[in-house]
Amino acid sequence: MRVPPFLKTTEVKRQPFINQWRSSASTRLLSSILVRLACGAAPKLRWQCDPRRRYRRRWERRRSTGMGSSRRLSWGCLPERWRGSHRGKSRRGIWEWDYESFVDVSKRVMVGRSRKQQEEVVREVLLSMLPPGAPAQFRKLFPPTKWAAEFNAALTVPFFHWLVGPSEVIEVEVNGTKQRSGVHIKKCRYLENSGCVGMCVNMCKLPTQDFFTNEFGLPLTMNPNFEDMSCDMVYGQPPPPFEEDPVSKQPCYSNICSLGNPNSPVCHKLQN
C-alpha cells in the first residue's frame, strides 16, 4: 500500500525531536547524579525511592508553597547544602540541565579529587543507574565471547550518540582474530566540549574500561586520539595497566583547557 506523502514528512520531522529528547533526558539524569555524588549525597533514582515517602514529601511541599511548581519540585531533588550554596547563583532544576551543564558539573567533580577518586565517582554514577543485580545478569547474558563483543559494539553506536557524538562499528583484531567489535567515535563530543585531557581519561576512559571489564565481565579498551579528538573502543580486548597506557604521558590541552598546566609535560590530573 502506498504511504501518503504527509505521513513520510511527519516521520522525518519527528525523528530529530526524539533524538534530542533522548539526549537531553540522559544529560539531565547524569548531571543530577553527579551533583549529588559531588556533594557527598547518595544518588537516588525513581525506582530506588520509597513511593510513600516520595509522594508524602511532594504533598507537604505543595501544601507549604500553595500548589507549588515543577521547578520547585525538581530543585528539591538536589542536596540541601548544594542548593544552599547555589540558591543565589542559579535556581536551575533537574529539567533545565543541558550538555554544557553536564560538562561543567564534571569539571567540578574533578576539583580537589585524585584520579582514583574521580574514577570512583563515575563508578558510583554508573552503578546508581542500574537496578540491583544488573551486573550479574549482564555476565550471564553476555559472557566474554566474540558475539557478545560485537553485539555490545552495535548497541554502543545508537545508545551513546548523545554522549560522544557520531560513531560507527569497525573491524578490529582481538587475540589474532578479526571481528566487528570496535567502535570508532569520529569526534568525541565530551572531549570537544570539555577540552580537558584529565576529564577524558579520569572520568570517561578509565572508569568505563574498569566498569565493563570488572563489573560486567566484558573486556573493553578505549584508545582516544588527542590529535583529532576521535576515539576507538575495542570490546573483547583487556585494557593495559595505566602506567603502560600511552594516555598516561599525555600533556594538557594548555591552550583550551581552563584547568590545564602549560608548564607540565604530562597532564597534572593524570599524575595523582
UniProtKB/TrEMBL annotation:
InterPro entries: D27-like, D27-like_C. Transmembrane segments: none annotated. Residues 162-244 form the Beta-carotene isomerase D27-like C-terminal domain. GO terms for molecular function: iron ion binding. It comes from Vanilla planifolia (Vanilla). This is Beta-carotene isomerase D27-like C-terminal domain-containing protein. PANTHER family: BETA-CAROTENE ISOMERASE D27, OS08G0114100 PROTEIN. It holds the Pfam family D27-like_C.
